[in-house]
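Hello, quick one for you while I still have it in my head. A protein chain has come my way and I'm curious about its shape. Can you walk me through what the tokens say about the fold? No rush at all, and the record is pasted right below.
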Amino acid sequence: MIILGIDPGYAIVGWGVIEYSGSKFRTLGYGSIQTPAGMPVVDRLERIYLGMKALIEKYKPDQVAVEELFFNTNGKTAIVVAEARGIILLAAKFANIEIAEYTPLQVKQAVVGYGRAEKKQVIVMVTSLLGLDAPPKPDDTADALAIAVCHAHSGCSRIAKYYNK
């Protein structure tokens, strides 16, 4: 199964593509879609959509795993990130790809074994689990790979498939 993990953002959308088969991981690619500050909102959203479309066409994922949003301070930031997240979900929907969503706590639990793990711990575990030569940069990319790993551990199980019918 090919999984596209997405860490949604407005300035940086982290992405990571893994293949999960027989409890083994193979990293197919990772990176980020970036939008510069000062670019009009609609142009930034278009860049995110076109970037997602290109990733889907290139890697042909079976499923997309996206992190749910959690904000407790800046409402304006939450709104623009939510708009970008909507574009990401729409791109996957238009491509008829199954979408799964995970909270940051679920991702940390699945990757590190502790839901309150620090970002550094997540990066170390992703680097180790996927056999990467170096930690992925930027951090949003490591988060996206963690989301893909989380989905491989959680959403691809037989139990999850039974309950998601």
Observations:
- The helical segments are 41-59, 75-94, 104-112, 119-129, 139-154, 158-163.
